[in-house]
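Board notes (copied after class):
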Amino acid sequence: MKKIVAALFVAALVPTLAACNTVKGVGKDVQAGGEAVEKVATDVEKEITE
């Protein structure tokens, strides 16, 4: 659960820290945040099923 909260926190900060000036840049930042959340979700799923 802590990993999920941490991933969501990072995902929320990525666009702010990157300070993108274009929509394309923001899209890349959001995508990177989504990938981080997806990785954590996969890790948690593995922990639950083991």
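Comment from the instructor: The chain has a mean pLDDT of 80. The first helix runs from residue 2 to 18.
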